Amino acid sequence: MTSIPQVATTGWLLRVTASAAPADSGRFEQQLQLLRPIAGFDLDSRVWTAWIGHLDVRALEILQQMYDAASRFGTEISLDPVAAPPTWQGPAFATESDLAALMDARANRNRVLGQLSIS
Strands, DSSP E only, in the chain? Predict the structure, then answer.
């Protein structure tokens, strides 16, 4: 099972990041148009970041667009559980066990039936 560090927090978020794929200006503009509505872009690190605090339609839209970018442009996607900062105003997973269950399901997604998890 995925363990999450014990931090005093009011909730947990799933940070979804996509490293911008190397591209000419036209292809980068296409990445920009796809990801701008759902994620912030850090020019220095060339990483798109979106935050999910609840599995709802908006979260599915974020994940779908991130994975569309990976499929179309070769961006590298990662999902990381993080403690919600005190300034966070949106929804958050209520307990670390909610997010741990989500991360555990993700980690075991490709595990063959009967194969033990590696954690």
Answer: 12-19, 40-42, 47-52, 76-83
Helical spans, DSSP H, in 3-95: 25-35, 57-73
Specify the higher pLDDT residue, 32 or 108: 32
Task: Tell me the C-alpha distance between 89 and 86, whole Å.
Answer: 8
Q: Ramachandran region of residue 59, left (φ > 0), alpha (ψ -120 to 50) or beta?
A: alpha
Residue 53 has a CB neighbour count (10 Å cut-off) of: 20
What the chain holds in terms of domains, given with CATH numbers, is: 12-107 (3.30.70)
Q: At residue 31, does pLDDT exceed 80?
A: yes
What's the one-letter identity of residue 65? Q
Around Cβ 112, how many Cβ atoms within 10 Å? 5
Question: What value does the mean pLDDT take over residues 29-51?
Answer: 92
Which two structure tokens, joined as six digits, stand for 26? Answer: 């036209």
pTM score, whole prediction: 0.70
